[in-house]
Amino acid sequence: MTIAHAIRAAILTADPRAKVMATRAIARDWAAGRLAPVFDVAMPDTPARPERPELRAPGAMPRRGRGGSERGRRTLIHALCHIEFVAIDLALDAAGRFGEERGRQFVTDWLSVAADEAMHFALLSRRLITLGSEYGAMPAHDGLWDAARDTAHDVMARLAIVPMVLEARGLDVTPVMIQRFAAAGDTRTTRILQRILDDEIRHVGVGTNHFTMLCAERGDSAPAQWKTLVARHFKGLVKPPFNDSARRSAGLSYEFMEGVA
Q: DSSP readout, 211-241?
């Protein structure tokens, strides 16, 4: 099987458990050389989705709460679980859509990210079950794929928005969530969120590294080009407060963040 066929099949897999297993298998098979580096099919415009959760527009979502009560924690974990589910497809799509243009290391990096996102989803979905719920029991945000759709034409725009804005936002907000779950005595979720935070620093770093390499190839200033693309493609503001240490660890230096907010 070709890498493109394998990735397309995983993106078009609706069942969450099957998507997780397929994503992990692709990463293993690619690393072992069992998938031909051939990009012979296009990526789908939209991933397959399970019947549940009910997908709603961002403005129609209920408030998540702060995670203080058990119900609030379930609601927040469910929201995070859905973010990780969509993140699997975002990483797969990057590898399948831009891999032929950017080469083997690009594919390897984004399949590694996809496997991490699949693991994050599995951890959070299992945690929901232990709390008496499950993925799909609550409505979820239907706007998360918009960034992929809006940047499908340009690898630089994709890198600028998905890892360097959306995932980077997770670096800012996850430490606060960790503190809230720890204060509630939920050490199991705290450990999961810390693992996710550590991995997301690497994911943002993957995106920043490939973005910087592309800018160098084209003779562009990476911070200036990033700000231009964010202004053009991101529907919103890059809002502080920022987790400066995590962002710097991911390659988002002072030059990137200067003047953003």
A: HHHHHHHHT--HHHHHHHHHHHH-SS--PSP
Could you report the per-residue pLDDT of 185-225, keeping only the tens digit for each? 999 999 999 999 999 999 999 999 999 999 999 999 999 99
User: Which pair of tokens denotes residue 99?
Assistant: 């891999």
How many CB atoms neighbour CB 202 within 10 A?
A: 14
Q: Do 241 and 178 belong together in one domain?
A: yes
Average pLDDT of 97-124? 98
Q: Are 53 and 135 in contact (CB under 8 A)?
A: yes
Place of tokens 């499950």: 134
Task: Characterise 95 by phi-psi region: left (phi > 0), alpha (psi -120 to 50), beta (else).
Answer: alpha
> End of a domain among 106, 141, 176?
141
CA distances from 100 to 46, 87, 91, 108, 235 (A): 20, 21, 15, 12, 28
Which of 118, 104, 106 is CA-nearest to residue 11?
118
Structure-token match 């030059």, residue found = 255
Q: Please check whether residue 153 lies inside any domain of the structure.
A: yes
